[in-house]
Design goal:
Two copies of one chain form a homodimer. Helices cover about 45% and strands about 15% of the residues of chain A. The first copy, chain A, contains twelve helices and ten strands. In chain A, helix 2 (about 25-40) crosses helix 3 (about 60-70) and helix 8 (about 185-195) crosses helix 9 (about 215-225). Chain A is globular and about 50 Å long.
Chain lengths: ~300, ~300
Amino acid sequence: MSLPRKVKLVEVGPRDGLQNEPNAITVEQRVKLINMLGDAGFTTIEAGSFVSPKWVPRMAGSDEVLKNVDHSRGISYCVLTPNQRGYEDAVAASANEIAVFTAASETFSKKNTNCSIAEGLARFEPICADAKTRGIRIRGYISCVIDCPYEGEVLPSQVENVARALFDFGCDEISLGDTIGTGTPQRVEALLSCVGTSVPIEKLAVHFHDTYGQAVGNILRSLQLGVSIVDSAVAGLGGCPYAKGATGNVASEDVLYLLDGLGIASGISMEKLLDASEYISGVVGREPASNAARALLSKRH
Amino acid sequence: MSLPRKVKLVEVGPRDGLQNEPNAITVEQRVKLINMLGDAGFTTIEAGSFVSPKWVPRMAGSDEVLKNVDHSRGISYCVLTPNQRGYEDAVAASANEIAVFTAASETFSKKNTNCSIAEGLARFEPICADAKTRGIRIRGYISCVIDCPYEGEVLPSQVENVARALFDFGCDEISLGDTIGTGTPQRVEALLSCVGTSVPIEKLAVHFHDTYGQAVGNILRSLQLGVSIVDSAVAGLGGCPYAKGATGNVASEDVLYLLDGLGIASGISMEKLLDASEYISGVVGREPASNAARALLSKRH
């Protein structure tokens, strides 16, 4: 079985995971979680979002989060920048990595970002250009790369068009999001084959939700096809308020269990990841949405 | 991606799934579940166990179950026969498929069946010989094909030795059970490569538990390697009382979602499987341990 020797896990729990939590999480708790994830070995952690607190109250204080996390280890703390204003705030907060985002489906783009795909891309082009001059890394997110909750099936060629635009803007990596979790390995293969004709495979990240229990299978297939960047969230945090039935991101613990079992280096310590999982599960008041975490933590107690 | 065109799903929920339920399930409820699974299209359903009710009280009345399920559709109702006495009872109850079982680990064999692997095999040899003369199908189960909760790592060659013996006894298929769910795709590949040298791949079934969230990935890898028989349990029922932290079988709904997505024919109707899942979840009083079932059922209500 052909597999990458190393994989970068991008931890999205502190942003994508927590943004829809029903109860407030303090800046201190978010900082603590991020630092525990840094201790575990993640080199890229999504730390916040420079979006109006009116729209995403849980991400208020992202500048404070960014100021207080541990900067001694060279970790990339990625922050979402939905527009020019957010981008300027991120620059002012000394962000070293930003994320721009759009969708492969027009309806989802309009519902999620209140603009068409083309308008979103036009908004991000100058942001990316400026970020490049400042040496700020850029992630490009594309939602609904398999299916859209409003439009149904999304063709790989639709994703490819958006991915090529983001790549041309200078995105350092492009994360393909199966927002509603309906993907299965065959469709993931069709997607990666198509997008891979416009963007080098080493620039592609995969971002799966475990809504239908398929995330680990889809990640395995992605690894077999050469993908070496995988998004995941500690304790399986997350969900999407705009997509009915969309449960959380695939759990970092389940993905790490897979990678460890495959002998793929990630630099992440399972024990320290479990510490973070246990911590944030206590904060949000529920068990980790991760089979591996529940099984491994049950042995601790 | 090379995949089988057809897969036989073996539904183990009514036996492997229900045998450890804390509360009693009536014969009527078991019959109803089995018939709903037959309606969904399963051609092999584990229906009971001819073991002393002293040891497995939940399987009491398996003869009544077998008598009352729908026999008009040619479904194989597999029943566990742990010894000569159980086998004779199964024959008296007109069972058309039996299952014999041992482990690839000596300690697990002793704890689970109170005899060594060799003693267990010696017990099953005449049973298999007699079953062959009567035209009764035989499944051979091997537990702990990846790791043992007592001994740790189990070598593929240990599994191969046991599988070869069962195959030589005339077992029609041999189910490889990752009892504690620690397998990952690379080890599954090593296992199948090794066992496949002694038993034809089309005679091998895989039986995964989702304890660490790896079951769907392991099934995908097994399919890629030519396996075409997969064990699963509706609503992810089950667990093993002898293996700490062993959660249920992989859910039939998650596996069917995978197969449907891969375009692999199974003959199973997801809608009717969901009916069975909803029914038995009501009986046992908890949500299905299946992401696919929860997501799909949430759209029904």
